[in-house]
Specification:
It contains 9 helices and 14 strands. By secondary structure, it is of the alpha/beta class. The chain folds into 2 domains: 198 residues, Rossmann fold; 90 residues, UDP-galactose 4-epimerase, domain 1, CATH 3.90.25. The relative contact order is 0.14. Bound molecules: nicotinamide-adenine-dinucleotide. The site of nicotinamide-adenine-dinucleotide has 27 residues, from helix 1, helix 3, strand 5 and strand 7.
């Protein structure tokens, strides 16, 4: 099959590209390298079944042309920094919703019928049911979550008008090689600046589930293989959950800095829009025969080792 992978040079996108090429598909990556990196995909540059379009998805002309002959679109490009929406109230709208609309339009005009989309646990906001099932309502607390929920709704509408088959994946935080943003990145950066004491957001009590990117990739492909509804919505997460304090301790243990003085800045330092309890129900996904192979602690350790041996 012929795949277009938007955001294919990003953390998760580049792992999707690896998997598709391993399965001998033709892959066209579309990325503007705003957060993606050439090094994540450069091993593929000489392959006959790999193409790269270095462009912005706001360029409708290039986007239209990029979809020629494509069978399936993996739409993973996004503005993935959840925190920044409060200071820049346009970026999520432009980079997530408008870009997704461009993609759906280009699919429509090129008669492409299949799309997989990377949504997020942030669409649920501060859910009151844990683990949160897929039929929990959208109550986003960030513009990132709000635009992802809107993207999902657009995908629904286009699927209903034009008989698209769509896969909507709601991810928890992914961890692993090529990780470029998030708590582990932030903690290691602070430790580089000062390895004696570290100031940390929150009081350490928020609880977050996360998942190895390798388990996440397996989950996506399992869903596409097994789930054949017109619109297929799945949470992709872990049954485990750690407090922020446990996450930090695992990072510190991995870099042998257990004695660092931790200064918790308290609840008032939490950033607006953050969700303090993230645990998604993965029962629907487990029924397809998938379960995570790595514990969250193993995935954190793997991420720390990756970041310390591949400094930016
Ligand atoms: N990483 C996570 O834990 C996580 C959790 C939930 C959802 N997601 C979603 O998964 C997807 C991938 O996330 P990621 O962590 O790999 O992020 P990432 O920032 O590493 O990847 C995004 C990619 O999209 C590209 N991109 C962004 N805007 C573009 C544009 N206008 N035109 C062309 N390319 C553009 C970037 O250069 C980058 O390569 C995103 O949609 C994100 O919202 C990620």
């Amino acid at each position: 099959m012929r795949y277009l992978v938007t955001g294919g040079a990003g953390f998760i996108g580049s792992h999707v590209v690896d998997k598709l090429l391993k399965d001998s598909h033709m892959v066209r990556v579309y990325d503007n390298f705003s957060t993606g990196r050439k090094i994540f995909i450069q091993d593929h540059f000489k392959k006959k079944n790999f193409e790269l379009i270095d462009a912005d998805l706001s360029n409708k002309k290039i986007l239209m042309a990029s979809m020629e002959d494509i069978d399936f679109v993996f739409h993973l490009a996004a503005h993935a920094d959840v925190r920044s929406g409060i200071n820049n109230r346009f970026i999520d709208h432009e980079e997530n919703l408008e870009i997704t609309h461009n993609i759906l339009e280009a699919m429509c005009k090129n008669k492409i019928k299949q799309i997989a989309f990377s949504s997020t646990s942030s669409v649920y906001g501060d859910a009151t049911i844990h683990p949160t099932p897929e039929d929990y309502p959208f109550h986003p607390t960030s513009l990132y979550g709000a635009t992802k929920a809107a993207c999902e709704s657009y995908i629904h509408a286009y699927s209903s008008y034009y008989d698209f088959q769509s896969y909507i994946f709601r991810f928890v935080s992914f961890l692993g090689p090529r990780y470029t943003h998030g708590i582990i990145f932030d903690v290691l950066k602070k430790l580089q600046q000062n390895s004696k004491s570290i100031k940390l957001l929150s009081d350490g009590s928020p609880k977050k589930s996360s998942l190895s990117v390798f388990d996440g990739i397996e989950a996506m492909f399992k869903i596409i293989e097994k789930s054949k509804d017109q619109i297929n919505i799945y949470n992709i997460g872990h049954t485990e959950i750690l407090t922020v304090s446990e996450i930090v301790n695992t990072i510190l243990q991995t870099v042998n800095l257990n004695r660092v003085k931790k200064i918790w800045l308290g609840k008032e330092s939490n950033w607006k829009g953050d969700n303090e309890f993230v645990l998604l129900s993965i029962n629907k996904l487990k029924r397809l025969g998938w379960k995570p192979k790595k514990s969250i602690k193993e995935a954190i350790t793997e991420t720390v080792l990756y970041l310390t041996t591949n400094p930016k």
